[in-house]
């Protein structure tokens, strides 16, 4: 306080300090800290006007949130508090109590209610002002309310009864959110995102995907002690994946599972089947071109530099069959073209001359032409 003598007294209200120095002085009031939200001390100085000094609370609650917890999983109650910085090593004792002042956590196990033995753990470091508590596994009876109490040797002690936390017990986790980014194209990298919220960051949910690929998992806090677990899958779809479901399964601490699915609509350019063929008989040359694509294809043929539309065309689901019939000629190769909104393809077909192989067997040739036509 300075070299000169001073005296102080604290009447109930207002709180005042009087001393006799005329010059500015530093007043040490640590022993007078209270647990009020704000303390205003009126200071009277000889030959100076009255001044008002604001003192921070000795220990101040910062963050204790309402919680949601999944039965059978775990819950972490985020908690932090404040106290004056000190150069001395401080000894802390932290504890958590229920609404009837029974201990659900204490560093001395024998002081804890038996129903909470081996289920509560102080995750935070009190010296770092962290009082977070984990309850694992969570039971129906763990609804609370609970509050934190701290005792700092030779400094202060306080129970945060005005900062209680209750746990909203849920029997089922919140729904899964599953989305696919952009269009799914054959043999191109695609990303799918699956995320859930949970209350157990020490044992987060496990993701399982129905499709092979590389998975990246992230965990981020949101609010009220809840966390978001996000799994991103990068994969390449094939045309066989079209109209199949991509599934994301989530397994929570405690064993509960959830699943979400999204239908894959795979976009792929036409692919011309190697069963496509051309045959030339005595009168007609017939070509059959079979194209498969995610959207209907237009099948055409290139004959002696000319592009010809199909004489007949049939579509079934993803398959388009184009048929060309032209008068027999000296054709060795005919090109098949397939175009769709997803792309294009072409294939050169060798013409099989049946009349050369079946010379003198008109009956067999006629039957073959009839089958093709």
UniProtKB/TrEMBL annotation:
Instruction: Name the SUPFAM superfamilies on file.
Output: Immunoglobulin (SSF48726)
TM ranges are: none
All residue ranges annotated as the Ig-like domain in the record: 173-264
Source domain of life is Eukaryota
Return the InterPro entries for the record: Ig-like_dom (IPR007110), Ig-like_dom_sf (IPR036179), Ig-like_fold (IPR013783)
Q: What is this protein called?
A: Myelin-associated glycoprotein
